[in-house]
Amino acid sequence: MPTALRPAARANDDFARLLDRLLSGAQVADLEFDAIYPQWVRRLSEQHWTPLDVCIRAAELLVTDERSTVLDVGSGAGKFCLIGAASTGATFVGVEQAAAARRDRARDPRAEPA
């Protein structure tokens, strides 16, 4: 495996193990789950992200079967989508307007915030 891909592969393995634990009913702390994200994203976790147990319960309530699709408007880093899809087998789609606004401002620093 090329050296550049090793950290990504390891992160995917760590994420897969974490999801396996969640799906088996094991307790996973929010901070442990949040560790899959880069530090700059984790700083937002406590203030903006939904706790794991709430993500799982909300997904259970929204999904009727594996053919369901859930749209998460304002998905941020995608925590709810990741947990929802993993715990139900349904399709979760996350849309985050703030990321597009940041990308647009990066292209043109004079652009007004959205």
Keywords:
single chain, 114 residues, mainly alpha, 7 helices, 2 strands
Topology, number of strands: 2
Order of the strands making up the biggest sheet:
1-2
Helix content range of the residues, please?
55-70%
Low-confidence stretches: 1-7
| N-to-C CA distance | 41 Å
| Computed Rg | 16 Å
Mean pLDDT: 80
**Which of globular, elongated, flat, extended, rod-shaped describes the shape?**
globular
Number of helix segments? 7
Descriptive report:
- The chain has 114 residues and is mostly helical.
- It has one domain.
- It has 7 helices and 2 strands.
- It has helices spanning 6-23, 30-34, 39-42, 45-48, 52-62, 79-88, 97-107, and strands at 69-73, 91-95.
- Strands 1-2 form a two-stranded parallel sheet.
- It is globular and about 40 Å long.
- The relative contact order is 0.11.
- The model is unreliable at 1-7 (pLDDT under 50).
Summarize the structure.
By secondary structure, the protein is mostly helical. It has one domain.
SSE diagram, text form:
Layout: H1 6-23, H2 30-34, H3 39-42, H4 45-48, H5 52-62, E1 69-73, H6 79-88, E2 91-95, H7 97-107
Parallel strand pairs: 1-2
Helix pairs in contact: 5-6
